[in-house]
Design brief:
It is built from two helices and seven strands. By secondary structure, it is an alpha+beta fold. The protein has two domains: about 60 residues; about 110 residues, no CATH class. The strands form three sheets. Strands 4-5-6 form a three-stranded antiparallel beta sheet, with no helix packed on it. A two-stranded antiparallel ribbon has the order 1-2. The protein starts with a helix and ends in an 11-residue tail after the last strand.
């Protein structure tokens, strides 16, 4: 753009903007008032709809949370791959022990693979499912503050590559990860 046209262009844009603003309002204020009222009504409707939606989502989340709380933290389930009942979490995902943990109450899973083997954790008292011995179920505080669930003296984990209930892709992996029986014993060996 030519240097002498820039100031003229800026003034033209400013003039058009001023005219547009002046056209939006009039001396009676009725146009502005009705526009503002329509905007308020629309905003109120949106706010009410949003509040109703938020309330419905909260109710749904509370119902889901209540249902999850009623479920067992650790349960037993038949597993076709293993050929017997094994421990699963409340979502039905296979639970494993890590052999190097032994009976320690602090996880020895190397930092580099912890993301692949999430600890089974509990916010409160863990719940034992049917057929399990509630006396064998406990929690152990970990250095990061989580309460890791233990069963029969074993810290419990799930496996990232198990993406659906019934999968046991971590079984005997590296000779260190094994599923557990309802008695809390390791199934299989290295």
């Amino acid at each position: 753009m030519h240097a002498t046209l820039k100031p003229r262009y800026a003034l033209a844009v400013l003039a058009i903007g001023t005219i547009a603003l002046a056209a939006c309002g009039d001396d009676s204020g009725s146009s502005s008032a009705s526009t503002a009222a329509a905007g308020s009504t629309a905003a109120a409707g949106t706010t009410a709809a949003g509040a109703a939606s938020t309330e419905a989502a909260s109710t749904s989340a509370a119902a889901t949370t209540a249902a999850a709380a009623a479920e067992a933290t650790v349960a037993a389930a038949d597993n076709a791959t293993i050929g017997e009942q094994i421990l699963v979490n409340s979502a039905g995902m296979t639970i494993y022990l890590f052999v190097p943990d032994g009976s320690a109450t602090t996880s020895t899973v190397p930092e580099g693979i912890k993301a692949n083997w999430p600890a089974v954790v509990a916010d409160g008292t863990p719940v034992a499912g049917d057929g399990l011995d509630a006396a064998k179920l406990s929690v152990a505080a970990q250095p990061d503050g989580t309460q890791q669930v233990m069963y029969n003296g074993h810290l419990l984990y799930t496996f990232l590559n198990d993406t659906a209930p019934g999968q046991a892709n971590g079984q005997a992996l590296g000779g260190a990860w094994f599923v557990l029986s309802p008695a809390g014993d390791q199934i299989g060996s290295a």
